[in-house]
Specification:
Shape: globular
Bound molecules: glutamine
Distance between the termini: 16 Å
CATH superfamily of the largest domain: DD-peptidase/beta-lactamase superfamily
Strand content: 5-15%
Number of domains: 2
Oligomer: single chain
Structural class: alpha+beta
Helix content: 40-55%
Radius of gyration: 18 Å
Length: 305
């Protein structure tokens, strides 16, 4: 049943790639074939379902914000993380900085660049990037996850906007550690390369409240996972989060590499790769796959059955 629906969802959504474009701010993302589409579902009873390009590696980009938030909650605590970063959808583009200028304002939430850079500034002094990478591999049950050096260097040479955001945050007292080290950590996390399968693995771990489905080891606390899933539901699809919540109703996080991480609580983790993006930076075909799955398998958070 799940395999049939998944195969249909991917086939039906493929043409939607024509409606979008790959991210264009660095060549490494713009030259990815926009017709890739893959979707993977891992279920809590051990099922593994795949359709399309689920083993192709791509750039995790903003989906790393979920991992950084989770680890920051574990290592720094809720009070520190949310002292100056909010929990509200911003309604603005992910890299917006206009509202930050206003006196007394702070980043709306940890899923946009400003919020994630602030969270990384609390996290970076506590954990090395190498340990983050090792932990990410465990969370995703994918030992092959690595840093894409080309993406990393390209991102670092196109960092002006994020650097402006970070120094504004330092000026406002939101960032109190080294700004350049924070930016380097943020960009490294964005430059990890994953597959749709890796994201399904992470989704299943979050669906199960933080316990690794493969080993039974607790990797994240229930409190951390509850916060992360709630923020994904309200803020995970940037300024498309509200519409997505109504139409799909599955806590998700997108990235401009074309990935979407989705969590059907207690039941499944879903990973998608479809690099053609809509105007908000979300995978066009990926969103369609999720809409299809949600409707056919009754996965909306408020579905009765
Ligand atoms: N590296 C990108 C940035 O910092 C990530 C953004 C995204 O995936 N939306 O702007």
């Amino acid at each position: 049943m799940i395999q049939t629906v998944l195969t249909q969802a991917v086939a039906a959504s493929r043409p939607a790639a024509e409606l979008g474009q790959t991210a264009s701010y660095i060549p490494e993302l713009s030259k990815v074939d926009k017709h890739h589409l893959g979707a993977c579902v891992f279920t809590s009873d051990g099922g593994r379902y795949s359709a399309g390009d689920t083993k192709v590696r791509f750039s995790i980009q903003s989906i790393s914000k979920v991992i950084s938030l989770a680890v920051a909650l574990e290592l720094c605590g809720f009070e520190t993380v949310f002292a100056q970063v909010g929990m509200e959808p911003s309604g603005d583009a992910f890299n917006a900085m206009g509202k930050l200028e206003a006196a007394g304002s702070s980043p709306s939430n940890p899923m946009i660049n400003a919020g994630a850079i602030a969270v990384d500034s609390y996290l970076e002094p506590k954990i090395s990037f190498d340990r983050m990478l090792a932990f990410t591999r465990k969370l995703c049950m994918d030992p092959e996850i690595g840093l894409d050096e080309k993406v990393y260097h390209s991102e670092m040479s196109n960092i002006s906007r994020n650097r402006a955001i970070a120094y504004l945050l330092e000026n406002k007292g939101v960032i109190r550690s080294d700004v350049e080290r924070t930016l380097d950590f943020y960009v490294r996390m964005c430059s990890l390369s994953v597959t749709a399968e890796s994201l399904a693995g992470l989704g299943l771990l979050l669906a199960g409240g933080g316990i690794c489905p493969a080993t039974g080891e607790r990797l994240l606390s229930p409190d951390t996972v509850r916060v992360v899933k709630t923020i994904m539901l309200t803020c995970g699809m940037y300024d498309g989060s509200g519409t997505f919540a109504v139409q799909v109703g599955i806590p998700s996080k997108s990235g401009v590499g074309g990935g979407i991480l989705s969590v059907v609580d207690r039941r499944m983790g879903i990973g998608i790769f479809g690099p053609a993006l809509d105007g908000k930076g979300n995978s066009v075909a990926g969103e369609r796959v999720l809409r299809h799955l949600s409707q056919q398998l009754h996965l909306h958070i408020f579905d009765a059955d």
